[in-house]
Amino acid sequence: MRSAIACALLALTLTMTMATTAAAGTPSCWRFRHDRQISRCFIVRAAEHYHQSRSQALYIAWRESRYHYRVSNGSSGAAGLYQFMPTTWAHSPYHSHSPYNPRWAALAAMWYWAHGGKFHWNA
Fold first, then answer.
1. What's the pLDDT tens digit per position in 109-121?
2. What is the pLDDT of residue 120?
3. In a domain, 16, yes or no
4. CATH number at residue 35
5. Domains held by the chain: number
6. Which of 36, 24, 50, 29 minimizes the C-alpha distance to 108?
7. Which of 21, 42, 92, 102 could form a disulfide with 69 if both were Cys (CB 3.0 to 4.6 A apart)?
8. CA nearest 35: which of 70, 77, 78?
């Protein structure tokens, strides 16, 4: 009985790991060592997902945070890769995640852009 449970747990763990690391054989953005590389990877994927300009997405993130996704502005409360204001983040479909996670920040920014919200960044 224990071995059957152990096998089931192992299979579930492997399935979850494979599902979360990459879709269709795409390597994880977390494989990179440096924040800037991680950020650029997530930005490019999010831009492609929402059919937005990769170069503009990269430029705005560079301008806002220099690709450092852990940054915040103490005076305004802006957070993360795209320096989301708390109210802007709260209205994104990714609000249940952290704005400091580059995956969700890039997806949220590109979602806003795809839905007419590029003005948030004065692009």
1. 999 999 999 988 8
2. 86
3. no
4. 1.10.530.10
5. 1
6. 50
7. 102
8. 70
- Assess if residue 10 is contained within a domain: no
pLDDT tens digits in sequence order for the chain, 123 residues long: 555 454 444 444 433 443 444 456 889 999 999 999 999 999 999 999 999 999 999 999 999 999 999 999 999 999 999 999 999 999 999 999 999 999 999 999 999 999 999 988 875
d(CA 42, CA 101): 10
Classify residue 7: in a domain, yes or no: no
Both tokens assigned to 49: 């997902």
